[in-house]
Amino acid sequence: MQTDISLKTLTTFGIAQQARYYTAVSNLSELLEALDFARQRQMPYFLLGGGSNILFTRDFPGLIIHMAIGGIQAQPEAEGQVLVRAGAGENWHQFVCWCLERGYYGLENLSLIPGTVGASPMQNIGAYGVEVKDHFAYLEALEVHTGEVHRFDAEACAFGYRESVFKKALKGRYIILEVAFQLHTQPKLRMDYGDIAATVEQLAAGAPPSPELVAQAVIQIRQSKLPDPAQIGNAGSFFKNPIVPEEQYHRLALRHPNMPHYPAAGGIKIPAGWLIEQAGFKGLTKGQVGVHARQALVLVNYGDARGEEVLALSEEIMQVVQERFGILLEREVNIL
């Protein structure tokens, strides 16, 4: 157990807040001990994975529990299926690469997404036409109150767009320990989203498309659009892409005929980055914070920003977008 630890290097935003206590846990026993430590002292605790989806706006007065439960196992099944299980603390991108190297396909479109395996079902991460729910088998999670481990299938997780039961109804009640994915040994490529097909064709140089080329394309596209947290502090996409009713979309389309849009469950999805750019924020800098010049969906820390400054900029963006388009953006990043 460590005390008064800086969170600057433990989060991708690089905000220099501190935690009163900090510990890393690599198995269930250590996790239970950490929870007991916090319980005995009646202090709050927070589970930290890759630190890529969190913004600390103040020092944390309790215990930061860094999830480091690792391990990957694969179990071949019938008809070209394979069940791959991974500890919640495994790095997500490294896990995707591990699967690709062994010919287990399905997650290649999710390459280079920051964070850990355990966080992936919590917010149903997705990119380029694929979401975690598309290849999810089950997860095992610790019920904090009872100390019992429960298994959740896809239905029990109640997946939605960047949502799951663990972000709402069961928030704070369970800690994800392990996630299992149903993958394929035969490629089933998804290249119909964004620039994937064109980038794969360019990379292939006449060779047939493959999951490995799809992964390379995704990595190249993401690196061209998104800043590297090692170079400039950020948490990736700060806002969710809003889904609006069809009637609202049609009214907006009359005034903005070039507005990009995509069909989605419950209505029409409009890219939040486009809304933010149209509102005049793309490339904006305010002191040590700003909106990235290549991707308006990304808020950045240019060096020594405080969490409150990032939060204030996000609130200003939300206000202006709502005034101009009648759409209230929702943050994807967790605020503490």
TrEMBL record:
Cofactor: FAD
Domain FAD-binding PCMH-type: 14-186
Primary location: cytoplasm
GO biological process, one term: peptidoglycan biosynthetic process
SUPFAM superfamilies: FAD-binding/transporter-associated domain-like, Uridine diphospho-N-Acetylenolpyruvylglucosamine reductase, MurB, C-terminal domain
Keyword tags: Cell cycle, Cell division, Cell shape, Cell wall biogenesis/degradation, Cytoplasm, FAD, Flavoprotein, NADP, Oxidoreductase, Peptidoglycan synthesis
The reaction(s) this protein catalyses: UDP-N-acetyl-alpha-D-muramate + NADP(+) = UDP-N-acetyl-3-O-(1-carboxyvinyl)-alpha-D-glucosamine + NADPH + H(+)
EC number: 1.3.1.98
Gene Ontology molecular function: FAD binding; UDP-N-acetylmuramate dehydrogenase activity
Pathway assigned to this chain's UniProt record: Cell wall biogenesis; peptidoglycan biosynthesis
Record's GO cellular component terms: cytosol
Compartment(s): Cytoplasm
Record-annotated active site: 162, 237 (proton donor), 332
Enzyme kind, highest EC tier: oxidoreductase
Family in the record: Belongs to the MurB family.
Functional description taken from the UniProt entry: Cell wall formation.
Protein's UniProt name: UDP-N-acetylenolpyruvoylglucosamine reductase
Lineage: Bacteria, Pseudomonadati, Bacteroidota, Cytophagia, Cytophagales
